[in-house]
């Protein structure tokens, strides 16, 4: 036979389990202390990349989030915004004392979603802002704001035209370096 009960605790005290045998109440256990523990806020961090990042418009940026709570996390989510637009949320975890999950920021899909068409890509200079949020029963905490800056696929470097006329030694050496770079 099983019995179940719920006790709302408002202050510290003691408890003991009794049973009714006939007309008499008989203690079945020793007396135990009830100690109230204050609920602490969860902790959360962006473990990867853990800083601002640069990516091309077709990369996938993995974001790993770790969160912990003293009792139980309700949910852990990643929130992101493209170029200062509306904030979106992706569920990462929750339901236990700790959570470690990973979500991908697919730059190609984020660009298409922003433009409402499949042919639009993010362009160099666009920003995807993101942060993580953890909630428990009473508190909500969030990480710092991080950004992924879209960079070009390739970079071209040109030799600067210098106005130095102080001898050919330096110019010859720079010319040789430039020639080797072109060969490579």
Question: What's this entry about, in short?
Answer:
This protein has 184 residues and is mostly beta strands.
Features:
3-stranded antiparallel β-sheet; 6-stranded mixed β-sheet; mainly beta; 184 residues; elongated; single chain
Instruction: Please give the share of residues in helix.
Output: 10-25%
The number of strands is: 13
Envelope shape: elongated
Sheet of most strands? 6 strands, mixed
Which structural category do the helix and sheet elements fall into?
Answer: mainly beta
Task: List the helices and strands in order.
Answer: EEEEEEEEEEHEEEH
What proportion strand? 35-45%
Cα(first) to Cα(last) distance is 82 Å
Q: Indicate the low-confidence ranges by residue numbers.
A: none
Work out the radius of gyration.
Answer: 30 Å
On the 0 to 100 scale, the average pLDDT is 85
- Total DSSP helices: 2
Description of the molecule:
The protein is mainly beta and 184 residues long. The protein contains 2 helices and 13 strands. It has helices at 107-115, 168-183; strands at residues 13-15, 18-21, 24-27, 32-34, 43-48, 53-55, 60-68, 75-82, 88-93, 98-106, 127-135, 140-142, 146-150. Strands 6, 8, 9, 11, 12 and 13 form a 6-stranded mixed β-sheet that branches. It has a 3-stranded antiparallel β-sheet with strand order 5-7-10. A hairpin with a 2-residue loop joins β2 (18-21) and β3 (24-27). The longest helix is centred in the C-terminal third of the chain and has 16 residues, at 168-183. The chain is elongated. The termini are far apart. The mean pLDDT is 85.
